[in-house]
Amino acid sequence: MDGVRLIARYLGPYRKDFLVAVLCVAVETSLELVIPMLMANVVDDGILTGDLDAVVVNGGLMLVLAFFSLALGFLYARFSARAAMGLGARLREAEYAHVQEFSFANLDDFESSSLVTRLTTDVTVIQNALVSGTRPLVRGPVILVMGLIFAAVMSAELAVVFFVVMPVLAVAMFLVVRRVGPLYRVLQGTMDQLNDALQEDLAAIRVIKAYVREGHVAERFEAVNGKLASTATHTFRTAVLNTPIFQGTMYTTCVGILWFGGQMILAGTLQVGTFTGFMSYVLQIVNSLMMISNVFLLLARAVTSIERVGEVLDERPTIASLQGALAEVPDGSVRFDHVRFKYASDAEKDVLEDICLDLPAGSTVGVLGGTGSGKTTLVQLIARLYDATSGSVSVGGHDVRAYDLAALRDAVGVVLQKNVLFSGTVRENLAWGDPAATDGQMLEACRLACADEFLDRIGGLDGDLGQGGAGVSGGQRQRLCIARALLKHPRVLIFDDSTSAVDMATDAQIRANLARLTGVTKIVIAQRVASVMDSDLIVVLDDGRVHAVGTHDELLARDNIYQEIYESQIGSGISGEVA
To answer: Do 480 and 469 touch, CB atoms closer than 8 A?
Structure first.
């Protein structure tokens, strides 16, 4: 019932098309069921009695009914296609829009390959079920019920056979569907794994070629593809069991009806025309039962896809704006008050433990620490990409949970550790920071990020970056991402190791340019001491805890971790080139 409600909700404006399609099938089926009665009249009242008028009248009515049935069939095809395609478009749109509302915690629950499958394959399965399943789902029961009634009216004795066979077929269909239903979920899960392998291999194709690992990934893909083929074979091999079961049972029934009907004709208790019409109903009833069995298998797979789509749509974002939330961030001050955080509620250890920090508005703050010390996690709490497990994070003097999410994230510019550019031009990518930015503003942001020096070589603002920014180097990609963040004019600007791919001279120039920005709190996560040593404040993290806070001189005088990092990078003469 949840699946039915989901489909009914997202049919929306196409609900009328769906109802018209159902009505067309019902009327078409009803008209077709009258034809065998007219056929019996042609034989019994016309041919056997020599009444030509009865043949013409009943034959003419059969032609008229056949024509109307054909017209209704065309109308069904038109309206069902509109309903199915409209439903698919609305489901994909709703899923995609809902995924955009997910927090990072929600996205951790779904693999990207699974989301792709749910947006494409599962929706296609639902569309096919609506187009291919509505007709037999309506025709089957109508033909079965009305056919049994008409057959019983024509010969109650012969119709008894169906009432004996029907329970047997119902049990067989129940057992097959019960077995196949769970297999379809396994099949869709295996499809997720195939998409995951494809996505990973295509995204990393340059690395694969660089390490000459084409053979390895081909073998891995072959294994996943083979698993999908094996699962599909097992699933559909079980699904097709209904065909021989139904055909064997119904053809045996037909033979029995022919035998008993022939004996009744010879005994004079049944007319030839009546028996001819009865056999027409027999064939229609057989077809209706086959349609019902096939549509149940089709629906079994569709139900699995509906459940998978429903899981995405029913997922509640863990982070959302409160009613009457604050719409403006007054300044860039940041405060962590006894903050603890862990990614999973059942995790044994916190990623961040009892973090207490006060970062004044307009200051430049450096964050240092070893791999896994919690640097990236710390700054993700500022933009509320995750919520603190306990304690509070404040920006501009207010808890981040008190802000409207859009307002908060507009005021917090983040250059993520993993730099992402989109297919298109430089201008289109920079417009993510400010859609209304002028060319002059974009060029100024590029100058501050030291991206202006290579703009001419890639075609200026209208230069095409290629798919995912493949047309520029890692350092150029980082600088364009910095320029994009600057165009937001944020209160807080976070750089998560965002100059690791640029040379020391360029890094120093970027820092000098950013130092001239006023009214912006700058938080710089870095592996190089040289990138943060001029900061107003430096935070040293160790295993999720604040180990020390101070200026460069203060930490160099009293903090052993900072001393070790400084000595390894600068004191030994490496000049910070080692990340």
So the answer is: yes
Burial pattern 312-345, b for ≥16 Cβ within 10 A else e, equals bbebeeebebeeebbeebebbbbbbeebebbeee
Q: How many residues can be counted in the chain?
A: 579
Q: Which long-range contacts (CB under 8 A, 24 or more apart) does 148-155 make?
A: 148/285, 150/33, 150/36, 150/37, 150/281, 151/278, 151/281, 151/282, 151/285, 154/40, 154/274, 154/277, 154/278, 154/281, 155/261, 155/264, 155/270, 155/274, 155/275, 155/278
Q: Which of 48, 38, 13 is nearest to 150 (CA)?
A: 38
- Beta pairing class for 492-496 and 412-415: parallel
String of DSSP letters for 157-219: HHHHHHHHHHHHHHHHHHHHHHHHHHHHHHHHHHHHHHHHHHHHHHHTHHHHHHTT-HHHHHH
Tokens of 496: 């998560």
Alpha-carbon distance of 339 to 346, in angstroms, equals 18
In the structure, what pLDDT confidence band is assigned to residue 48 with cuts at 50, 70 and 90? low
Tokens of 424: 């298109």
Tell if the pTM clears 0.85, that is, is over it: no
Widest pairwise Cα distance in the chain? 120
Using alpha carbons, select from 567, 543, 147 the residue that is nearest to residue 354.
Answer: 543
Percent of the chain with pLDDT over 70: 95
Neighbours of 184 (CB within 10 A): 23
pLDDT in tens, 18-27: 999 989 888 8
Which DSSP string do the residues of 212-244 spell out, in sequence order? Answer: T-HHHHHHHHHHHHHHHHHHHHHHHHHHTTHHH
Integer Cα distance of 499 and 511 in angstroms: 10
Owner of token pair 């120039």: 509
| Tens-digit pLDDT profile for residues 1-18 | 677 788 888 888 898 999
The residue whose two tokens read 């067989």 is 172
Q: Which residue type, as a one-letter code, is found at position 219?
A: E
What is the token pair recorded at 399?
């808890």
- How far CA 367 is from CA of 364, 492, 521, in Å, comes to 10, 15, 13
Spell out the long-range contacts of 104-112 with Cβ–Cβ below 8 A and sequence spacing 24 or more.
104/380, 104/385, 104/386, 105/318, 105/319, 105/343, 105/386, 105/387, 106/315, 106/317, 106/318, 108/343, 109/315, 110/312, 110/315, 111/192, 111/196, 112/196, 112/199
Torsion-angle region of 135 (φ positive above 0: left; ψ -120 to 50: alpha; else: beta): alpha
Residue with tokens 């430089």: 426
Phi-psi region of 339 (alpha: psi -120 to 50; beta: other; left: phi over 0): beta
Contact 359, 537 (CB under 8 A): yes
Give the CA distances from residue 56 to residues 34, 41, 51, in Å, rounded to whole numbers and listed in that order.
16, 11, 9
Is residue 326 within 8 Å of residue 407, measured between CB atoms?
Answer: yes
Half-sphere exposure (Cβ direction) of 183: Cα atoms closer than 13 Å: 18
